[in-house]
Amino acid sequence: MTLDGIHHITAITGDAPRNVDFYARVLGLRLVKKTVNQDDPTVYHLFYADEHGSPGADLTFFEYPGIERGRPGAGMVHRIVWRLASAEALGFWEERLRREGVSAAREGDGLRFDDPEGLGLELRVVETGDAPLIAGHPEIPAGLAVQGFDGVRAYSADPERSRSFLERTLGFGSAGPDRYDIRGERRGSFYAYDRTATWGRSGAGTVHHVAWASPMDDHPAWRERVVQGGGRPTPIIDRFYFRSIYFREPSGVLFEIATLGPGFATDEPLEHLGEALSLPPKFEHMRAQLERVLTPLPLTRGPVRATSKAQA
Ligand code: ZN
Fold first, then answer.
1. A Pfam family for this UniProt protein (predicted)?
2. Residue 57 CB contacts under 8 Å (≥ 6 apart), including other chains
3. In terms of C-beta density within 10 A (0-12 exposed, 13-18 middle, 19 or more buried), how is residue 248 classed?
4. How remote is the CA of residue 240 from the centroid of ligand 1, in Å?
5. Is 159 left (phi over 0), alpha (psi -120 to 50) or beta?
């Protein structure tokens, strides 16, 4: 039984319109699902990914309108790293971010910057046999686009205390000091620690959890394995687009194991993902009310595309 690398990463935004502008327009990800927080349906849960809404490229945000900025610390993911194909792509992004007024720093084959709320991001040239997970965007040639997650970096006061759980329970492989690789049949990712003894504060621009991908049939067995490894997982929760368990790894980072299906095309067609508000069946009766209270968002797709085609 192996985990297929990162399934999705979930972070927090206090400013959904700006978040959509940054991730869909500037970074060129596809807004693949516009739904509500299942614990508070008056606010959004936004999902960005590649064209097909694939696990491995899926970054999601809980919206808490106006929430104060957080600060990453021990037990939190503090940087999300995406793959790029080439040095040419790195140059393209350096220029694109500069034009957008985003301050970015070259670090070897990587480009480091923050999102508008301070979330740490990196684009890195990576050689891999994994399929590129890219979204179409009128200003970003496919060969230069962001290709899905490479991994995440977390803070820990003592990364060693996570080693046994990561290696023996979850099957992560050691890949250098405080760094692990996790690879399944389709994809792999890295998970790395930076050391800090300082505690963080959850808020806008911080990561809430990272989810690892499990084939559908293995999911119940993963829960058993986490229990046997000393973890305290939640029951299996049906998130409609996938099934999930949540638990904290020994350094305090909130992990999820999510199934590779059924996926985002389960309640709307692939070509129209993310255009309309999707509601889990239990909230459908509240649609009119929710559409009145939810923050208006900029359009990302259909009409944007139609306009660019009309101009061409
Ligand atoms: Zn999740």
1. Glyoxalase
2. 29, 49, 50, 133, 135, 147, 148, 149
3. middle
4. 12
5. alpha
Kind plus residue range of the DSSP H or E element containing 237: strand 237-238
Measured in residues, the chain has a length of 312
61 CA to centre of ligand 1 in angstroms: 10
Question: What's the CA-to-centroid distance between 34 and ligand 1, angstroms?
Answer: 15
Residue 7 C-alpha to ligand 1 middle, in angstroms? 8
How far does residue 60's CA lie from ligand 1's centre (Å)? 8
Residue tagged 């009119």 (tokens): 288
Cis preceding linkage at 262, omega within 30? yes
Q: Could you read off the pLDDT tens digit of each residue along the chain, which spans 312 residues?
A: 999 999 999 999 999 999 999 999 999 999 999 999 988 999 999 999 999 999 999 999 999 999 999 999 999 999 999 999 999 999 999 999 999 999 999 999 999 999 999 999 999 999 999 999 999 999 999 999 999 999 999 999 999 999 999 999 999 999 999 999 999 999 999 999 999 999 999 999 999 999 999 999 999 999 999 999 999 999 999 988 999 999 999 999 999 999 999 999 989 999 999 999 999 888 999 999 999 999 999 888 754 343 333 333
Listed in order, strand segments (DSSP E) in 86-169 are 105-107, 110-114, 120-125, 149-156
- All domains of the chain, ordered by start, with CATH? 6-293 (3.10.180.10)
CA of 44 to the centre of ligand 1 (A): 14
263 CA → ligand 1 middle, Å: 13
Q: How far is the CA of 54 from the centre of ligand 1 (A)?
A: 14
For residue 256, how far is its CA from the centre of ligand 1 (angstroms)? 6
Measured in Å, residue 176 CA sits from the centre of ligand 1 at: 27
Q: How far is the CA of 5 from the centre of ligand 1 (A)?
A: 14
Q: How far is the CA of 212 from the centre of ligand 1 (A)?
A: 9
